[in-house]
Specification:
single chain; 107 residues; mainly beta; 5-stranded antiparallel sheet; two-stranded antiparallel sheet
């Protein structure tokens, strides 16, 4: 097996429209599950994990301005990914819960 290659991967995504004055908003939720993986060192395995994300996107808040806000890794799962040969370590700890806010102008 290739190091870092999972035994299985599962995704579930839900996108639902929201009622707002601009008429164009969505709630998105995603859950990803990754099975156990072979580590870079002989005999090591990386544990399976699940991560959930949620976001709200509103288009045309003001003219062509849209905004998004959300949370990634909602449950603050702690997991590692196999590091590539260019790293001096064999595994990379992934970040916990993160909040984001995005503004974009479309023309």
């Amino acid at each position: 097996k290739v190091p870092g290659s999972p035994e299985w991967v599962a995704h579930a995504v839900l996108v639902a429209p929201l009622i707002v004055s601009s008429g164009n908003a969505h709630l998105a939720a995603r859950v990803t599950g990754v099975g156990a993986r072979v580590g870079n060192e002989a005999g090591t395995r990386l544990s399976p994990y699940a991560v959930a994300d949620v976001a709200v996107r509103i288009n045309r808040v003001y003219r062509s301005l849209g905004v998004s806000a959300g949370v990634t890794n909602l449950a603050d799962s702690r997991y590692d990914e196999a590091a590539g040969d260019e790293y001096p370590v064999t595994r990379l700890r992934q970040p916990g819960r993160r909040l984001f806010l995005e503004a974009r102008w479309e023309w």
